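Q: Here's a chain of 86 amino acids. Please give me its 3D structure as tokens.
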Amino acid sequence: MITEDLRKKLTGVHAYLVTPFTEKDEINVEGLRENIQFLTQNNVSVIVPSGGTGEFDSLTQEERKKARKFKKTSTYSGITVSERNN
């Protein structure tokens, strides 16, 4: 992506999500969906799942894949979703 295009997309309020877990220590996909819906309804323009709250390094590779799969299958009009590539 061209730097200027990226700058335009990365403006506004950025939210770094906390990954919710179930009582069985599995990613709570419904909770993640609810968190993202709340943020999109409240003028957040960039969402970074597992990006800045520290849990990224604590997630297993399988959990990271699950979070990425969820992100890829979820669409939010006008929202930029950013992600670490590890």
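Q: Can you summarize the key feature?
A: The first helix runs from residue 3 to 9.
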